[in-house]
Amino acid sequence: MSGSKNINIAGIDLGTTFSAMAILNTIGKPEIVPNADGERLTPSAVFFDEDNGGIVRIGIEAINSRHLNAERSVRWIKRHIGDSNYHKTIDGKEWSAVELSSLILKKLKQDFAAVHGDIDSVIISVPAHFDEIRRKATMDAGKMAGLNVIGIVNEPVAAALYYATTRRVSGNVLVYDLGGGTFDVTIMSTHGSNMDIICSQGEHELGGVDFDQKVLEILQQNYRDKYNSELIITDEDRANYEDEAEDIKKTLSRRSVARKMLYGPAGSIKIEITQQMFEDSIAELLSRTDLLLDAALAEANMTACDIDRIILVGGSTRIPVVQKRLEERFSFAPEITINVDECVALGAALHAGLTFQREKPNSLPAGIANGLKDIKLTDVCNHSFGTICAPFDSKIGSRVIRNQIILKKNTPLPCEVSQTFYTMNKEQKKLEVTVTQGEDAAAEYVNIIATHTIDLPPGRSAKRPIKVTYSYDVNQRMHCKFEDVESGKVHELDLAIDKDGKLLETAEKEHNNQLEALKIE
Amino acid sequence: MVKMSDGYNLNLFLVLTVQAGLLYLFVRSLIKPASVSVVLTNQEEKNLHAKHLTVDLALTIACAGKKISVLQLKVIKNYIEKDIAPKRTSEKIAYYLKLLSYYFFISPDFNQCSLISKQIFELLNFAGRYDILDFCMRLVCADDVVTTKQLVLLKDMAEQLEIENERFRLMLGKIIPVSKYEVNDIEIILGITSDMDAEETNSLLGKEYVKWNARVTNSTPQIRKQARDMLEIIAKAKSQFTH
Ligand SMILES: Nc1ncnc2c1ncn2[C@@H]1O[C@H](COP(=O)(O)OP(=O)(O)OP(=O)(O)O)[C@@H](O)[C@H]1O
Ligand SMILES: [Mg+2]
Questions:
Q1: pLDDT by residue for chain B (243 residues), tens digit each?
Q2: What is the DSSP letter of B182?
Q3: What is the CATH number of the domain that holds A432?
Q4: What is the atom index within ligand 1 of the atom nearest the CA of A78?
Q5: Chain B interface includes A298 (CB < 8 A)
């Protein structure tokens, strides 16, 4: 399977709690690549060695070291990726979420190389609801780790891709992905290996770690009730009991009651947590999964009756009440046959194969090409993209700043949409344009992902047309075109994911003076 | 305590009582909102009158369910100086006394709020009314806690000013951090009313959920926090209504 002549095409699932990697074998089938310890999943945890500043431990060792020195360890980095304010300081160096993620990816790359040699092309998966900034940050982490990242794929899409290539399916499929830190629901229509994504909805902070916290709260309360004292005093205690809580949660997926001895600072306590107690504690979090499900169905213009199958993805779907609620809602049981924690990496490898085939059809080994030949995937745009403009609000009696959506969420890819805007003032010399991402009409509720200044010819009257065109390609890359219709002058803006990361900061500073630039009729 | 048997002390007591009574009457006259005695035709006069009324409204709302804070007094003082700017010193002093009286003798008549709002409605166009509701929301928000009584008054104010419910809740979501609410009143925050059936409630919760869920990754930290808090309230409401 390996060998220098072969091309190594891989997929990586960079998870909140666990990461996994898969390779396409010689006949184009994806296989999980175990890490150096022989494990198929690697905990997404980082630990900076205390004795040797040059050593960083990734995976299970990092999890264990965390109990001894929590200060030097980091987990759940994915929750912070794309957040420029997040830093972890170790020995005076500030580590960003991108840098920390790149350490995990480097470990995966290294373990892969020990068996298969270098990776030629890789695709990393992200939650469907990740915005442009988070997608770019994930790609940057890959590049920083020395990977040739040829694209990004949505986790539920990857899972569905793997699913569709392993069995015959047709009809409307709902992918329910409840992992360690995020939750995504994707609805698609399938006919054999033809898959059309219809829509996705996701929650950024809902997953196994939140369920662990609820169990932890029960432990802390029990301890308080018995000893009138706190169970957790140090960060190391917290690390320890977080893992105990996860353990209890997992036990409750198999049994109706979990028992544990806790040795706290004021004395020991025997804890007994029942499935019912656990389910009550996560009731509100589960309500959110219901709300998201409703939102996805509404967006797809469907009801529960229109869904033919449900695929479960992510470790948290092993929780019995999660499955039970789905069964009650849809009147049939979700499919739990595939490996819920591996299918994303496996699908990402398939996606990498498809992307490679599209970009370099002649370089792809015949065996792999043959394995991929029947798959056809139509993805959609995951967010709406727009621009800030200043239309006249007749009720308020003045212009109001508004976000005008140009490219609508869930438009099949590739796509291109144009809208015409008009300049506001006579003799207007400059036009500052803004590219936004988000669904809101209120400008403060959307994120500005780029700004651009266009010089206009002198001596113009007001209300001159500017044609704005947004396009989004199958590799999830966005392209913007601003055309001054009268002079024919075109300004192009490529929001390729490798664009300078500082773009956003300047965009925010300029927020106020560019708002007035455009107007809509 | 005053000993009644002691003649000297009794005299002092009477004097003090009369003084306190006079002061009280004076303060009550300050608290009483300015009413429209003449028909105003000039828009500028109308605007100014609406601003005077706004001060009364703002002071009353700030006192609802809690004591007005020094910070809130400052907000109103700024409003008076910037937007009303009384030129005569005597008028200014009267205003300051009014502010102080609300600080020391809080017993405003909350029933007045509807009435004052109605008067403002007659005086101003939509944009002007919108600005006044915005001001009162920001004033309430200048303190750490926003009481339910204040929310009820703001809601009533919006109704009298004919600012639609949808817009009212949009303003509320933007201006007041959920973490400041004394109690999370889902009727006001989410617009769920007791006469809605399960389907209506679910659809409303669904809409609010989608809106706030999309804001969880906003680039402004305050908006992110607000979105997270709102999702919690929505989830709580959802589990209440489905069980
Ligand atoms: N038997 C089980 N019962 C309950 N939870 C489980 C079980 N097995 C695993 N989990 C939970 O599943 C989560 C890990 O799932 P998974 O590997 O799919 O997530 P991830 O890919 O790391 O996260 P994400 O996709 O959200 O970024 C952990 O929180 C773990 O505790
Ligand atoms: Mg995952």
A1: 334 445 556 566 556 666 666 666 665 665 555 555 556 678 888 888 888 888 888 888 888 888 888 888 888 888 888 888 777 777 777 778 778 877 776 677 788 888 889 989 989 999 899 999 999 999 999 999 999 999 999 999 999 999 999 899 999 999 999 999 988 888 888 988 888 998 899 999 999 999 999 999 898 999 999 999 999 999 999 988 876
A2: S
A3: 2.60.34.10
A4: 27
A5: yes
Strand partners, A419: A468
Beta-bridge mates of residue A495? A478
ipTM over 0.90: no
Record: contact A288-B202, CB cut-off 8 A: no
Residues A16, A55: one domain? yes
Exposure string over A400-430, b if 16+ CB within 10 A, otherwise e? eebbbbbbebbbebeeebebebebbeeebee
Cβ of A245 less than 6 Å from ligand 1: no
Q: How many Å lie between the alpha carbon of A441 and the closest alpha carbon of chain B?
A: 11
- The encoded tokens of residue B198 equal 């399960």
Q: Which domain holds residue A367?
A: 9-167+338-379
- Report DSSP state, residue A316: G
Residues A364 and A461 in one domain: no
CB-based contact A374:A193 (threshold 8 Å): yes
A29 lies in the same domain as A102: yes
A397-441 residue pLDDT tens: 788 889 999 999 999 999 999 999 888 888 888 888 899 999 999
Contacts of B243 in chain A (CB under 8 A): 283
CATH of the domain at A240: 3.90.640.10
- Would an 8 Å CB–CB cutoff place A295 in contact with chain B? yes
- Based on the fold, state whether residues A370 and A404 are members of the same structural domain: no
User: What is the model's pTM?
Assistant: 0.85
For residue A418, tell me if it sits in a domain: yes
Residues A436, A498 within the same domain: yes
Q: B238, A287: Cβ pair inside 8 Å?
A: yes
Looking at CA atoms only, how far is residue B64 from chain A in angstroms? 29
Instruction: Say if residue A163 is in the same domain as residue A36.
Output: yes
- Geometric angle at alpha carbon B231, from A221 and B214, rounded to 5°: 140
In chain A, positions 363-402, which contact chain B (CB-CB < 8 Å)? 395-398
Residues A143 and A71 in one domain: yes
